[in-house]
Amino acid sequence: MAAFADTFRIGGDLEVRRLGFGAMRITGPGVLGWPEDRENSLAVLRRAVELGVTLIDTADSYGPEVSEVLIAEALHPYPEGLVIATKGGLVRTERGRWPVDGSPEHLREACEASLRRLRLERIDLYQLHRPDPEVPLEDSVGELARLRREGMIRHVGLSNVSVEQLARAQAVVPIASVQNRYSLADRRSEDVLEACERQGIAFLPWYPLAVGDLAMPGGALGRIASARGATPAQVALAWLLARSPVVCPIPGTASLRHLEENVGAAGLELTNEELGALG
Questions:
Q1: Residue 218: left if φ>0, alpha if ψ -120 to 50, beta else—which one?
Q2: Is residue 138 within 8 Å of residue 168, measured between CB atoms?
Q3: How far is CA 4 from CA 201, 248, 267, 270, in A?
Q4: Rounded Cα–Cα distance for residues 57 and 172 (Å)
Q5: Which of 4, 42, 47, 108 could staple 266 via S-S, CB 3.0–4.6 A?
Q6: Category of 229 on φ-ψ map: left (φ > 0), alpha (ψ -120 to 50) or beta
Q7: CATH of segment(s) 7-213+246-268
């Protein structure tokens, strides 16, 4: 296995290897219900830890509840140094929709339920899954601040936010991480990443392997992958790791083979010429 590139301290004290694992896809089709092969999902989680992953990201809405239950089933009692990050603020429907509920009452109930499912006394990183347009952001984040003071949360994170929303949240409670959609092909959160980099906040890009046409034969991504004996996904992850020292990608998969490929990207160091070709 290739060595990890480096580590990052989330919140200043949670040291993790920068290439983590996103546990959304270990659930059933459409991120609903139980996986068709439960034992495979458990094996993927255990293999991730065997490969050195120390950051696993999930949410109560994945399944819903299924991802958190599987994580505890596969890994509890958790090895020392393993950080389990989860999120609250989205609610799943039977039709697969993702309604937002950022009310303080819901967030408290969601956090308490996640603690039970994950078999934890404190969640190292608890993230607001998405701001609720019907609830002032300060009210949602304020409840997470109270949960932090009460010892149920170690660090507070945000997901799917703008620079302005990050600043508003920071006026309420220290923010340890931001999780936005970001990849080689989708850089709309570039300003948020830059704000995180300036402040030393962990940036966890979700959907990090959205490479699209960039991976087509003849494209820069495909050419570099071929020349380096790597997959386009590995090059895309290596680009993210090179993009900023605060970036902690969390690629997800239900495939053992893809998991091992993804982890291997941590040892792929791109040259300045290759980084320039990728833009």
A1: left
A2: yes
A3: 20, 12, 5, 14
A4: 24
A5: 4
A6: left
A7: 3.20.20.100
d(CA 8, CA 16): 6
Residue in 189, 155, 10 with CA at minimum distance from that of residue 87: 155
> Token pair of 114, please?
């996640």
Question: Please, what is the end-to-end C-alpha distance for the chain in angstroms?
Answer: 28
Cα–Cα distance measured from residue 236 to residue 214, given in angstroms and rounded to the nearest whole number: 10
Task: Count Cβ neighbours within 10 Å for each residue of 235-260 and write b for 16 or more, e otherwise.
Answer: bbbbbbbbbeebbbbbbbbbeeebbe
In terms of Cα–Cα distance, which of 162, 106, 171 is closest to 135? 106
Which positions are annotated as active-site residues? 62
User: For helices 190-199 and 163-170, what crossing angle results, to 10°?
Assistant: 30
Q: Tens digit of pLDDT per residue, the chain (279 long)?
A: 333 448 999 999 999 999 999 999 999 999 999 999 999 999 999 999 999 999 999 999 999 999 999 999 999 999 999 999 999 999 999 888 999 999 999 999 999 999 999 999 999 999 999 999 999 999 999 999 999 999 999 999 999 999 999 999 999 999 999 999 999 999 999 999 999 999 999 999 999 887 766 666 678 898 999 999 999 999 999 999 999 999 999 999 999 999 999 999 999 999 999 999 998
The tens digit of pLDDT for each residue in 79-93 reads 999 999 999 999 999
CA–CA gap between residue 24 and residue 16 (Å, rounded): 19
Domain-wise residue ranges, the chain: 7-213+246-268
